[in-house]
Amino acid sequence: MSAAPLLSPAARTLAARLHAALADRWADLDRIAPADTGPLPAYRAAPVPADLRPGRAELIVEASDLHALRAALVSGADAVVIDFDDTFAPTRANVAAAYAALPEWLAAGVPLLARPRALYALEAHEPFGGQPGRAALCDLAALLTAGAGRTPHLYLPKLESVAQAQVWADALALAEGHLGLGRGTLRVCLQIETFPGLLAADALLFTLRDWAFGLNAGRWDYVFSLVKTVGADLGRPVPPRAGLGMDLDAMQAYAQALVDVCRARGAQAVGGTAAVAPDPRDPQSALDAVRADKAREAAQGFQGAWAGLPDLLDAVREGLRTPPAASDAVPVTSARLLDLPHPGPLNGAEVLDTAGLALDVFRAWLAGQGVVTRGGRIEDTATAELARALLWQWVTVRAPLGGGDTLTPDTYRALRRHLCPDDAPEARLLDHLVLSSAPPAYFPAEAARLNLTDPPERMPHD
User: Which letter does DSSP use for residue 24 in this model?
Assistant: First the structure.
């Protein structure tokens, strides 16, 4: 007996219309390089939704974690983000559970946002035209048809080019027409979490100006994209994650560039995720760190931020009460954005921990769990992507190790074997990502190509 469809009849109808209208865009979109957008005409972003007040702490929850979602709705969060992206492992069971629960979430009285999966992701369980469906369009259709007269606001993830933004614009316009909504009824916030996306942030916002009210900073996805995009050309190793904090001028420039676009276009800047897991026996140091991080964002001009746990909501809000400081007069330049310090010889334990992080998240993700708590931090696909990109970059540039060795492919394999045998699925995936001549774009797509997903997906154009 075939499995029940994931999409409701109403969602399936909308998804089919979206796939039919956009089917000829995928091949070029997957391969497209960011374009030089040139000067833009004067424009203003869409109005911020009335229920998304400044200074808000948004609680992000994985879309199929029904217990966490119910708790989030009564947590006191200023808004709840239902996440199908970085914290979500898209097994059939998880997608089915998330879609089935949407009417309950949309009936709640809390301001809601939802993050569908990125444009590259496939949904093999819902084919259209003989190909796996595009997960973003399936998620969009499910989200927009599940509530009686209510649609959530949306976060649009991993934008890298104007062409991708245009696909989202066309999808939103088609969905509004299908649902009998006026153009611009839906509201979206664009996630500026890729290096090409940052360079084109103004053009992305312009392309989606009828719907987009803000830009959101996703720091670990951004650093992953930065390493992936320019890491081979730096000629030096990138610092490990502990050396990539927001105190670096390169990261300050990233945040400043995002806020500058928002100020110029009347958009709202939304900060990153507080992703620590406080020690219940002594939570104060973790809460103080969250408060300080959000105070820094507020001083730069951010008006909201995410919390990864309900216990962090108050600290996020308190930090965001910091008044904005005077605008930084130092211009954002490519030199600033690329000014990552040389870390010196890498500590072998640090390299081992980086590999361990990727393996832990991959192992959980392949088993259907999108988030793990590790070393007092909430880890998800974004931090796993960064970990594997760092390993790739270190191997590529032959990063020096303490004791005079360098991180060669053989050295990497020897370190990884301390953590995981060669035949483990997570080891196969990490080796493939780290030892590729060029860094693959996103690990879920590579997991599908290695037949590690549920079920193995046939990727288009393979």
Answer: G
Q: Identify the CA nearest to 169 among candidates 119, 129, 128.
A: 119
Residue 312: closest CA among 82, 77, 84: 77
User: Whole-model pTM above 0.70?
Assistant: yes
As a whole number of angstroms, the distance between CA 82 and CA 66 comes to: 11
Say which amino acid occupies 410: D
pLDDT in tens, 187-234: 999 999 999 999 999 999 999 999 999 999 999 999 999 999 999 999
Q: Check residue 33 and give its pLDDT.
A: 59
Q: Which of 103, 113, 58 is nearest to 82 (CA)?
A: 113
Note the residue count of the chain: 462
* SS3 label, residue 79: strand
Cα-based distances in Å from 277 to 280, 283, 376, 428: 9, 9, 5, 29
Per residue in 432-442, pLDDT tens? 999 999 999 99
**Residues paired with residue 62 on neighbouring β-strands, in sequence order:** 83
CA distances from 25 to 37, 89, 157 (A): 19, 26, 18
Helix (H, G, I), strand (E, B) or coil at 458: coil
Confidence of residue 239 (pLDDT cuts 50, 70, 90): very high
**Phi/psi at 179 (nearest 5 deg)?**
-90, 0
Whether 333 has a pLDDT exceeding 80, the answer reads yes
Report how far apart, in Å, the C-alpha atoms of 304 and of each of 49, 55, 58, 194 are. Answer: 13, 5, 7, 20
Q: How far is CA 85 from CA 149, 208, 243, 291, in A?
A: 25, 20, 26, 26
Query: Who contacts 400 (Cβ-Cβ below 8 Å, separation ≥6)?
Result: 237, 344, 345, 346, 406, 407
In three-state secondary structure terms, 61 is: strand
Q: What is the DSSP letter of 438?
A: S
Amino acid at 409: P
CB within 8 Å of 70: residues ≥ 6 apart: none
DSSP letter for each residue of 129-198: TTEEEEHHHHHHHHHHHSSSS---EEEE----SHHHHHHHHHHHHHHHHHHTPPTT-S-EEEEE-SHHHH
**Is the distance from CB of 399 to CB of 299 less than 8 angstroms?**
no
Question: Which residue numbers are catalytic?
Answer: 115, 380
Among 142, 115, 184, 131, which residue's Cα sits nearest to residue 25? 131
